[in-house]
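Re: export button greyed out
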Amino acid sequence: MAILSVPVPSAVHILVGGFAVLILHLIVLSVYRLVFHPLAKFPGPLQYKLSAWPLLWQAYKGNRHIRHLCDHEKYGPIVRIAPDTLSFNTASALNTIYGPRSANVKKGEWYKTFDVAAGSYSSFTETDRDKHAAKRRWLSPAFSVESQKSNEPVVIDVIERFCETMRPSGNDWGPKWNITEETTRLGFDIMGGIVFGCDFKSVQEEENRDLADSVLPASKFLYWVSHLPLAALVRPLLRTRLFEIAGGQPVVDNNRLINYASSQVQLQSCEIKGGEKEERADRIDFLSRIVNSGDKKTGWQPTRADLDTECLNLMNAGADPYSGAIAATLFYLAHNAGALEKATAEVRSVFTTPDEICNGPKLNSCTYMYACIEETLRRAAPVPSHLPRVVLPGGMDIDGHHLPEGTVVGVSSYSLHHSPVHFPDPWSFQPERWIESTSVSQESINHARRAFWPFGLGTRQCIGGNLAYLQLKLSLAHVLYRYDMRLAPDDPGRGGGGPCMEQGRQREDEFQLWDAFGYGRDGPVVQFKKA
Ligand code: HEM
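Workaround output, generated via the alternate export path:
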């Protein structure tokens, strides 16, 4: 009987064949994305239309916000920044996407990598709208007026000790301080007190700095990893030894923060003595307010993993954006002598002793100081790039375009906050633009506010916004009341841009941000003198 001989392909044939299939697949995919894709009509650089990898590279470099701004300047108010993603740069898009509860979007997949290594999703990363609503209701007592009032002495205590550490010993200018380093620890110490009732003292004591100095590297790492096109495959590996080896120090940092938050939950929720659970009734911190509660409306109760993840989130989301914002405020004041002088004079005329500086009518009467904070949040919003939202079934209309389900949409605060349509002379630091006067009408302030969103918008708006404003006002008032401030004469440019930096980073009087959740930053380097 004749045996049919079927030729067995060689390894070379298989490789060549596989390669040919891959090339064909890429050609077909490219043609589809350029010509037939529902977003094909929107302008943008060719490489963005073809692939999501350029976006990942920008996230890795911390330059996304700068690229978005340049792209909008070149291509207009709508830019296709990845095959399935559009960036908008109008107040109308901002208010359509993020504002209304009924907006047909939810948070994008991007969020899911952020804190899942702690075991669950937090109120920040939960993408399911109903589950998020339950978590938000669960957290609300921690952010109530009563809670803020009882936690204010904790905040003031940490700020006063920060000021004490900065105090020059003589009557001349004191030592140089890199404000980014010191305020990173200040923000962490405040959050340690508020969230866990712990006194980290990382501003004062070197041995307590590991945790404080871990927040930003961990966030920067997770920020770009979240942009990986196959991030879903990476998520289960985040806490493995393999990932620690591959990812290095930022992964170790992230795990250290997770372990810390978890140990605090363990301590608080299970203080067992003689077999009985003992609760400390005198505690006012956030953890003590959420540990034994849930969502009354739906009956949802947090698991241990939910608690661990939420505490990690509160610690990170609370600490770093504030630290970045106060560093940026001091940068802009140190670089704008007139504004520094006016804000300082205001604070010193309102208060007669530092002990008086607390929340209340006097602090609220410091309108110029408040305008300096607003203007800083415009120039250096702590989340400068997109907060991605994905369009749900049924699609959505934005700025006159119907977008199909699955489209990822977003607005970059850095880009919109520098739009001359809403902010005339956008590259100058002008606190006055936020104060009604003969030259600034209430209409122009309202017009600016429509495009101003440092704390997000709508149902996913920052839950800690009021607390953050209070922290910013208190810390600025305490510093300005006590000290004069100047840029260190031998390091005046730290934190600003320069001619040798990348495109978009040339302005010496602009505080440079490296995009993340919070942002990478450095400086300013300043000196203080007793008032
Ligand atoms: C200057 C300081 C701060 C800024 C600029 C800021 C900014 C933001 C932004 C833009 C969002 C929206 C994120 C999104 O849509 O994806 C957000 C959410 C959040 N922030 Fe803040 N934040 C600050 C301080 C704080 C503080 C002090 C806390 C609390 C301790 C906090 C806790 C949160 C939480 C829990 C969320 C998630 C809210 C939700 O989705 O329901 N933030 N923050």
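Residues 272-277 have pLDDT under 50 and may be disordered. The button fix ships in the next patch.
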